[in-house]
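New to this. Look over this protein:
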Amino acid sequence: MGGKKQRTLSINAFVGQNIRPLRKDKRLSLKAVAEKLDVSSASLSKIENGLTDINFSRLGQIAEAFEVDVLSLVSNEVIPPRPGEAHIERGRQRLDARDREILELQRKAIFLLEEVLAQKDKPNSTKN
């Protein structure tokens, strides 16, 4: 019975070991994923390190954040990144940036239009 020590991972540690490579493969920061999950970066770090309990609801949120099946988070198999996912994510980020630019341009256009209309509505003081 002596020297045989079999190390088994808790489900928390096992899931954490699967999450970190997913995050790194997608080139996502701890902060970005934490925001998706609505948790602090410290909490996500604890999840990745197997230091906190994960309930089924949180497991589902994590799977959704990484766009993977829940089973892939608890399987023994290495989870390869899906082809093209990084490209898709970069495209989404570019679109988000463009959306913000468009919104800012719309705000500026509205402001300028309001200024022009305000000037038009003012009585012309140069006429006598």
The CA atoms of residues 22 and 28 lie 9 Å apart. Helices lie at 11-25, 30-37, 41-48, 56-66, 70-74, 85-121. Residues 83-122 form one domain. Residues 85-121 form the longest helix (37 residues).
